[in-house]
Amino acid sequence: MAKQKKIGRLIRNLFYFLGLLASAGVCYIALLMLSGQFEDGLTHPPAEGTALLQPGQTTDFAALEENFGAPLPKLPGYPMQGQALNVPYNGKSVRKAVQQYEGFTLSAVQPAFASPLLLHPELSLSMETDYSVAGLPAALAEGENEYCFYFSTEEAAYSLHAQNMDRENFLALAALIAFPHE
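Now predict its structure.
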């Protein structure tokens, strides 16, 4: 009887080990598949072959969006100064657009995996999850009279950043941001 228990325990431990080995294999394959997606995005820079705008050169939103190569959000009816440029990220070139409005900045990068370029490390992410900007889920980061929303599409990542603004006005401003072609 004791010998049967030992054999049963040995078989059970063998199955546990095989299960762990199979789980590790599945995770490894999933990581390989995901890394292939990101590598593919890195090897093909966005909007290749288009001329770049010089910094501060345009107030024409359509030209800025065309140079960026993906939809950009904007604050309709307000003047902006914009630029689109290539910037390095992880040894590759990605596209970045910056729109300066009076009192705040709308920034974008594409591909979306370059979103760390938009982070403001001096701000703390809020745990609240019920925010959206231009109809997209958004994460709020805040500091003393400084706020930032981060949001993204499959093509690009965006940030809305304002300094010297109270929370109520920042949330009202974010509600006005829209993608003009939708």
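The mean pLDDT is 80.
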